[in-house]
Amino acid sequence: MKILDFFFDAYDSSRKLLSGKSGKSADQSNENPGWIARSIPTALILLIIISLVLGFLWDSEPDSFNPVQRAVELSAERGEDMTTGYITTSTLIITAETLLDKRGGYLSNDKFPPGVFMDNIPNWEFGVLTQIRDLTLALRNDITRSQSQSVEDKDIIEADNKFRIDSESWMLPAAESEYRKGIKSLYNYLDRLADKDAKNVQFYARADNLAVWLGLASKRLGSLSQRLSASVGQTRMNTDLAGDSAAHQSTPTSNMVEVKTPWLQIDDIFYEARGSAWALSHLLKAAESDFQDVLRKKNALVSLQQIIRELDSTQDTLWSPMVLNGGGFGMFANHSLVMANYISRANAAVIDLQQLLKQG
Fold first, then answer.
1. Is residue 28 part of a domain?
2. Is 323 part of any domain?
3. What is the pLDDT of residue 207?
4. Number of domains forming the structure of the chain
């Protein structure tokens, strides 16, 4: 609808501009050929049609892929050995490449039609980008380091810095170019990781490292669940300081909190959740292989598989042409509450898995 409004306004302005010749003589008005007046509305209508077609084609989420299979293909293509951490790192790279190279390319920072009028896929992109950032941060702080006093990996530092660029930055720097530099740094790390003679690069598949990354994922899922549930609006008890009688906060707040997602942001949060779940599902499938020995020792492999199952359920086809926001027990569906159910179940399973990993 925003596309149509924009171009119809432009059409009306151009028509008024062309018709404002009343102060000119007949000879002056005859100097402007009639084809100009006819071609501008035609060009605007053609531009509207092209934008609508491109917007329809670009408004689609990429398909899922098999992380292990793609990692095997990548290692064969590059002639590299699949050492510990290869599958997780290669899946992180493929996820980031999919973000940039999917149909329509990267849309979050578009300034021209139709991308500038689209919001579903850009929010999906932000969800994917959040998971890329979280795993890269876990790699930088924990997974590639033996202890807290060890040195950070130079390529992971570079990748983490590049992925932190504002997702809507379109020049100086452009988000896409910075993210591609981050992908290049991950490839450099992957090359070194596959070299068995390299001693200055590691991927430590330990229980504590996996638990740290899952802690980041849990916070993301918990936030998404709350924002999705707020689509219908509700009054909640303020539990910010619960569990610590000596706790304080900077400013006082009410004991009852009204939480409701603005109507225009409901579909934004829905697609951000889909993107985040899509990316996390693939990354956890890769981690299932790299951390398999640890998970088997903790008897936690089935717990991780249950998390993946819940996340995959969020990717079911949305048959409605729009995200519906019916009441909780109303006549119409509320897609946000359905999504919140899967996200909450996945988050609960993540918390349980963290506890299993922390046990001796």
1. no
2. yes
3. 95
4. 2
Cα 116 to chain centroid distance, Å, stands at 17
More confident residue, 149 or 189: 189
Q: What mean pLDDT comes out for the span 240-253?
A: 70
Residues 38 and 67 in one domain: no
Q: Which residues pair with 334 in a beta bridge?
A: 325
Vertex 214 angle, CA 70 and 316, to 5°: 55
Q: What is the per-residue pLDDT across 271-311, written as a single tens digit (0 to 9) for each?
A: 999 999 999 999 999 999 999 999 999 999 999 999 999 99
For the chain, the residue count is: 360
